[in-house]
Design a protein that fits this description.
heterodimer, A: 12 helices, B: 8 helices, globular
Amino acid sequence: MAALSTAHPRWTGDYWFLFRNLILKDFRIRYRTMSLGVLWSLINPLVMMGVLTFIFGRVFGGERPPLFPVFVLCGLVPYNFFTGAFLSGTLAIVENSVLVKRVPVPRETIPVAVVLSSVAHLLIQIALLLGFALFYGLWPTTAWLWLPVVWALYVVFLCGLVLGSSAINVFVRDTRYLVESLNMILFYLVPIFYSFSIVPARYAAVYQFNPVAAMVLATRNILMDGKAPPPSLMLNLVTVAAVTLGLGLLIFGRLKRRFYEHL
Amino acid sequence: MNVGTLSFDGVTKTFAHRAGQALLRDRVKDLLFPFGRPRFQALKSVSFALRPGESLGLVGPNGAGKSTVLNMATGLMDPDEGRIDVRGRVVAILELGAGFHPDLTGAENLRINAAMLGLTRAQTEARTEAMVDFAGVREFIRQPLRTYSSGMVLRLAFSVAVNADADILLIDEIIGVGDQAFQQRALEKVHALRRAGKTIVLATHSPDLLTSLCERALWLDRGQIRMLGDAREVLAAYLGKTSAATP
C-alpha cells in the first residue's frame, strides 16, 4: 500500500455559530412551509395521546395505569423524538449531498445538526408534557432535576446512532427503509401504552437495555413517581449513550473518506 | 508560517464504483464478485507545488481531471495514493449556490454559507455589508431566495466566497457569473485578491483569463500531467495540440 496522507488544515471556524445556523436553517425550512408552524409539534402528540386514551380506555376497557394521558405522553415524547431524529438524521448526508460534495464543512456536523434541531421540537413537546403533568396534579419535586440529565444522555445517544446510520445510508440506501420499519416496530416494543410492570420478568432486562424504553421508564419515574431513576437504569443510559457515540464516530470517521464518490 | 501553500505529491485517484447504484443488492454483488467493476482513473501521479501568492491555471479537455484536482485540494475527497499538503484557509468556488436553500432569505443563506466557510459570527457580521453590496442584492436581502433570479443567486454566492478571507482560492469555471457588469467586477475582484497575495488555482477554458490571472499553468490530459510551466507556454502548446488534433 502506498502512503495515503492528506495534510489539510483543520476546519478553523466557529462550531457554535455553525450549529446555530444549521439548526435555525432546519427549523425555518420546516416551519415556513406550514401555516400552523410550531403548533404541529404539539398537535401530533396530542392527537396520539387522545387516540390511545380512547382506545385503551373505551374500546378495550379493562384496567389502565393511573393518569393515563400523562402516562401515554411520557411514552410518546421520547418515542417521537427518537423516530423523528433517527429517520431525518439517517437521511442527513444523502439529502445534503450537494453540501458534502461542494463545501468542506466538517461532515460530522451535518447529521448532528439534524438531531439538535429535533431537540427544538423536543423542548416544545417536553413543555407540553410538563404542562399536562401539572394539570393532572403532579407537582414538581427535586427529582424533576433529573429530567435534563436523562434527556441530555438521550440526545447524545441519538447523535451517535445517527452518525452511524447516516454514514451507512450513503453506501446502502436501503438503510432508510430499515429505519422506517424499526421505528414502527418500536412503537409496540416500547411501553408507550402499557406499563413496564406487565412485561414478563424474563424480558425485563432486554427491555431496559432498549434506550428508548429506558428513557420512557426514566421519564415516568421522574414525573409520575417523583423519584430519581434507579441507578441500574442510569447506568444503562450512560453506557448506551457513550458506546453509541463512540461507535457512531468510529463508523462515520471511517466511511466519510469515501462519501464523495458514493453520493 | 507558510500560509497559502498547496502541494500535490504523486497524487493518484481511481473511481471504482457504479455511480448512483447503492442498493443492498449492489453491495452484495460487489462482495461476491469483486472483479471486473468499471474503474476510472481520474488522476495518475500528479505532483505540483504552489508558494504563497502564486497562481496556477488548470487546462485540459473535459474529463482530464481538473475538477478532481480542485476537489481534492478543497479536502472534499482523499487521494488513493500520494500526499496533498495544504496550509491556510481554503475557499473553493466550485459550484456557486451549493447549500443555499430557496425558502430562506438571502441574508439567512449568507450567514449559513459564511459559517460553513469557517467565518465566526463577528467576522460574518463585519463582512455582511460588503458581501451584500458586492452582490448588488441589497433591496432583496430579506426576501426568500426563490424570488431571486438565477443570476442574483450566483452573485450572492460568489460574493460570500470572495469575501471569506481565503488564503487559497480554488476556482472552477466561474466566469459567466451574472451579467456583463458583474462579470467585470468579479474578474476585478479575483485580480485584487491575487494582488493581495492570495494563492489561486483556476480551472478554465478561457485563454484570456488564464494568461491574465495565472503565472503558471498545468495541462492535464486523462489524469496525467502533460505539461507544467509558464502559463503562456503551456497555453500555446495546449492550443497547438488541440487545434492540430481537430482539423
